[in-house]
Specification:
Blueprint lengths: L2 H31 L22 H29 L1 H30 L4 H28 L14 H24 L22 H27 L5 H27 L3 H26 L4 H10 L1
């Protein structure tokens, strides 16, 4: 197997694992918003059985666990392929090991979610680790894809300040999703039943559930404004993928704000909450991918030399 072919196989397996992780995050939202988190009161079995009774809430939670198990199998296969070949191990071994560690932590948090009776702190930690695992798997896939085509030499110069701009945008998006998770787990989605005001007030006291909901709203405005700035900065990038990624991240964020407003007016229906989290994860993915491209500017010649040496 050639150098490029080995990385091509790793990228395909990594992409399948990343897509499944995306689906698992969205399914987790459905579990939370339908109140199915304790439909299986034990772990790892469900009501002491491998296949539980065919009851809607039980099946939602059981399906979430089933997808998590399939993800674990795919991740084990990805890690096995990575560690079996030296060239993959050198470039992707650390990411594969990190993904395995995050998966084990995620499984433990999933068990604690049941054992601690849906403690908001544990549920929020579960989401935080899920997003880190998703980002790690996506980064693994991006590195493998880049290495599979070492002849693609990048632009020689990165515009000053572009990398920290997108790194900050990615961090803001991650934090905003965690805020949204706290809103959901603390049942603060309708703490402000109107928009753009909250109970008719533009600046309500930042206390309790209302304070949590307002922090989430202001975080959304901050993220949208910063992404507008990042998209403007990206216009100077020599890579068309960076310019497109910044524009898409901004467009998704504006759509996300619209989904959030609609969710308030419709009473946070399950399908809209799932779409809200799916869009949030897509924003994070787009920013991780764009930041990766920004970081890689000027690295193509070095990759080509490395591949040629092999």
């Amino acid at each position: 197997m050639t150098y490029a072919r080995a990385f091509r196989g790793a990228s395909r397996l990594g992409l399948a694992t990343t897509v499944l992780m995306f689906g698992l995050i969205v399914i987790g939202s459905v579990v939370r918003t339908t109140g199915s988190g304790l439909a299986c009161p034990d772990w790892p079995l469900c009501e002491g059985r491998l296949v539980p009774p065919l009851e809607p809430h039980v099946l939602i939670e059981w399906f979430h666990r089933l997808v998590a198990l399939v993800l674990g199998v795919l991740l084990a296969g990805t890690a096995g392929l990575t560690f079996a070949r030296r060239e993959l191990r050198v470039r992707l071994g650390a990411l594969a090991a990190l993904a395995l560690g995050l998966y084990l932590a995620q499984a433990l948090l999933g068990a604690l979610t049941v054992w601690k009776l849906l403690s908001p702190a544990v549920v929020s930690s579960h989401l935080a680790v899920a997003l880190l695992l998703f980002s790690t798997l996506l980064t693994y896939t991006l590195v493998a894809q880049r290495e599979s085509d070492p002849a693609a030499v990048d632009a020689p110069q990165r515009p000053a300040g572009l990398l920290p701009t997108f790194a900050i945008a990615t961090g803001l998006a991650y934090g905003q999703i965690l805020l949204g998770g706290l809103v959901s787990t603390n049942h603060a989605g309708l703490a402000c039943p109107d928009w753009p005001t909250c109970g008719g007030s533009w600046f309500p006291p930042l206390e309790g559930l209302i304070g949590l909901q307002m922090l989430h709203r202001w975080g959304a405005y901050l993220l949208a404004g910063f992404l507008l700035y990042a998209a403007a900065r990206a216009r100077t990038a020599p890579d068309a993928g960076i310019r497109a990624g910044a524009t898409m991240a901004l467009g998704l964020t504006l759509a996300q704000v619209a989904l959030g407003i609609t969710s308030v007016f419709l009473g946070t229906p399950v399908w809209l909450s799932a779409a809200h989290l799916a869009t949030a994860a897509a924003i994070l993915a787009m920013l991780v991918a764009t930041t990766f491209r920004v970081a890689g500017l000027g690295a193509g010649a070095a990759r080509l030399a490395t591949a040629a040496a092999r």
